[in-house]
Design brief:
- The structure holds two protein chains of two kinds.
- Chain A has ten helices and no strands.
- Chain A is mainly alpha-helical.
- Chain A has one domain.
- Chain A is globular, with a radius of gyration of 18 Å.
- In chain B, strands 2-1-5-4-3 form a five-stranded antiparallel β-sheet.
- By secondary structure, chain B is of the alpha+beta class.
- Chain B is 52% helix and 19% strand.
- In chain B, a hairpin with a 4-residue loop joins strand 4 and strand 5.
- The chains are: A mainly alpha, B alpha+beta.
- The interface between A and B is medium-sized, with 16 and 18 residues.
- Chain B: It is an enzyme of class 2 (transferase).
Chain lengths: 248, 434
């Protein structure tokens, strides 16, 4: 169905676009070079891995792809922490974040497009749905860019604050995947906020892409998410205060 | 925002695409939901139409399908709403009237003589189609005010640097020539802002040069004039010692000329000094009445010489927040003018009082006065009533009232001219905020 395609593609595309916008805003210069390099690197990596996807999926008792994604989320989290503590938005960690996210997004979209995963209809509605998802994703990215631009202009520190939800999202996504593979035990949902904001709604998809919204989180996911947020807030605050004291 | 054009294009397209696509998705959702309901309703109607044959107690539905089954023209089955007679309607779709309604009918015949007729009220079909279409249009219509609101906000935001620039230019005082600064300078405004600031810079330099020139010239002339004055005095003394007489009063005229030039230079320098752009006022609370008395005493010899009668009326004390030097100069200039232009034996009256939130000083003389049509001009520099050949042959440079006006401006006050309360003469009223 069209709506399924839209939600599926948006769910994959939006986290990448939101992070890309944030990384672009953190770059004081060379924005075009960063955009070009990140797109090229992500595409090259996806194309390089595409022929080996079947093999990758078979690895680690059929959990190869999930573990690759967990690694990508882990690398992204590390790079985001470097960005949070660095003096100025460095180029390389930002590039790592986008490449890792691009890899996840690219592989998932490849799988949806060329395999039966995701139960996506490949008729006209698939392409119309992809077009709608692309339009929605890019529009949100453009508006997000201008919103961050405004925030940066008013209070530059707010931009660093926006890194925290991105970090928390990496943690919760990695934990969910580890639970999926059985490496971590699954738990009972602590609550169900799906009645307020469904994960299947547009708002739910956006919140999921922004800070890793889960309508039915379990204890492990919630703890991981909160710990990331609290620890990195403290770390970021310390680094920020030190930079302010040093007049940087 | 680096460019208004880029910002408007990108954000407007993003907003329009986002709202349109979300509205389309919502239309899709609502239409799909409504279609599902309609299909379910159809299933229910078909079940009801067949069930009626086997359950006579089943109530007749207000809306439903009519089903008729016949073989070789003989009725085999009909639902409650179907006609009792077997009609020979054309195969396929058609519109027919029966049971007091207009129906959409579908007729299909088999090779073995069987014929089935299924009909649905036309009104019901139209209503269902209408519901489906309305469900799909509803989000699109609702998205329009949202789009309009967002466009309004975005355009307002995009034009904010332009609004800020025009507000800054509009709020500027005539003498404020500092560069205009904007928090954000989009590409489209860079050239305008640069050109405007260059213009301000050039104007500022020109005005500064003009102001400095008069002051510098006056200052440079001071020294040779002093030397000239001393030499003239020495020459006159020597003439007197040698018993030389000055029949045609050449030396006296020369002395008066030098004195007038010295006064002119002093006035030019005072004018420059009291200009609001240059003067650093040290305001404090002053008793204006006491100050006027002191100034009158300073002019006492001239008053006595011309046998003027002078009076100070009004309040005993009038406190104003002003610069001592400037206020003294203001009263002195006005009183000096009154003494100069009032014929011997004339009257001068100073009145001081408060009027609401203002301190008012009025100086009236019984001199010849000024024609009302010349009131606005007398505050211009070097302007003299009657031109250079002043009808009363009173020496002056035409700078006194210009200085007074600058001092009044400096204290955010106002000055007016009017005929005096005497038979003739001028009344100068100065109002300063309390």
């Amino acid at each position: 169905m069209l709506i399924n395609t839209v939600l599926l593609v948006t769910r994959e595309l939006l986290p990448l676009l939101l992070l890309l916008v944030l990384m672009l805003q953190l770059q004081s210069a060379q924005k075009s070079r960063f955009l070009l390099l990140s797109v090229l690197l992500s595409t090259a990596l996806v194309l390089l891995l595409a022929p080996w996807l079947a093999l990758l999926t078979q690895l680690a008792e059929g959990n190869g792809l999930e573990l690759l994604f967990v690694a990508c989320y882990g690398v992204s989290l590390l790079a985001l922490i470097i960005l949070l503590t660095a003096k100025a938005g460095p180029f390389s960690p930002a590039l790592v974040v986008i490449t890792a996210q691009g890899l996840i997004c690219g592989i998932n979209l490849l799988l949806y497009s060329f395999t039966g995963i995701g139960n996506v209809d490949k008729g006209d509605s698939y392409w119309l749905g992809t077009l709608l998802a692309l339009g929605i994703g890019l529009s949100i990215a453009v508006l997000w860019f201008h919103l961050l631009d405004e925030l940066k202009r008013r209070t530059p520190a707010l931009l660093l604050l926006m890194l925290l939800p991105a970090c928390a999202r990496q943690t919760i996504e990695a934990l969910a995947l580890l639970q999926q593979t059985g490496w971590l035990p699954g738990g009972q949902a602590l609550w169900d906020s799906g009645v307020v904001v469904s994960e299947q709604s547009e708002a739910g998809v956006f919140l999921q892409a922004w800070f890793g919204y889960e309508a039915t989180p379990d204890l492990i996911q919630l703890t991981g998410w909160l710990l990331t947020l609290i620890l990195l807030s403290a770390l970021g605050y310390r680094c920020y205060i030190r930079r302010v004291k040093n007049g940087l | 925002m680096t460019s208004v054009r880029r910002y408007l294009i990108s954000v407007l397209i993003a907003v329009l695409v986002l709202t349109s696509f979300l509205a389309a998705l919502q239309s899709y959702r609502l239409s799909a939901e409504r279609a599902r309901e309609l299909f379910d309703q159809d299933l229910q109607l078909i079940a009801g139409a067949i069930w009626q044959q086997y359950d006579v107690n089943m109530p007749q539905p207000a809306q439903g399908l009519a089903v008729q089954l016949s073989r070789h023209g003989e009725l085999k089955y009909r639902s409650e709403l179907a006609p009792q007679a077997v009609n020979s309607w054309a195969q396929g779709y058609s519109e027919q009237n029966f049971a007091g309604k207009r129906w959409r009918v579908f007729v299909q015949s088999g090779n073995n003589g069987w014929q089935i007729m299924v009909a649905q009220p036309l009104q019901q079909r139209l209503q269902l189609a209408d519901e489906l279409i309305t469900a799909s249009i509803y989000p699109v219509v609702l998205s329009l005010p949202v789009q309009a609101l967002l466009i309004w906000l975005i355009v307002s935001r995009a034009l904010s640097p332009l609004r800020s620039l025009s507000a800054q230019l509009a709020s500027r005082k005539a003498n404020e020539l500092s560069p205009v600064t904007l928090e954000q300078v989009p590409e489209e405004l860079k050239q305008v802002l640069q050109s405007t600031n260059q213009l301000f810079e050039r104007l500022s330099a020109t005005f500064a040069r003009e102001k400095r020139f008069a002051s510098d010239v006056a200052h440079e002339l001071r020294t040779p004039l002093s030397v000239l004055e001393i030499n003239l005095h020495n020459a006159l003394t020597r003439w007197q010692q040698q018993g030389l007489s000055d029949h045609d009063e050449t030396m006296l005229a020369l002395q008066q000329g030098v004195e007038r030039m010295r006064q002119l230079i002093e006035q030019i320098m005072l004018l420059n000094r009291t200009h609001p752009d240059n003067f650093q006022a040290k305001t404090r609370l002053l008793d204006w009445v006491a100050l006027c008395r002191q100034v009158v005493s300073e002019w006492f010899s001239q008053l006595e010489q011309k046998q003027h009668s002078i009076s100070i009326e009004g309040d005993e004390h009038l406190m104003v927040k002003a610069d001592d030097f400037a206020l003294r100069l203001l009263v002195s200039n006005l009183l000096g003018n009154a003494i100069k232009y009032t014929p011997a034996g004339g009257q001068i009256r100073l009145t001081l009082h408060t009027s609401r939130d203002k301190a008012v000083l009025a100086i009236e003389d019984s001199g010849p006065g000024i024609p009302p049509q010349e009131y606005p001009q007398v505050f211009n520099r070097f302007y003299r009533v009657g031109g250079d050949r002043h009808q009363f042959a009173v020496p002056g440079a035409g700078l006194g009232l210009a200085i007074v006006k600058d001092i009044v401006s400096l204290h955010n006050g106002s000055i007016y001219l009017a005929p005096a309360g005497f038979a003739s003469g001028l009344k100068v009223t100065v109002e300063l905020p309390l």
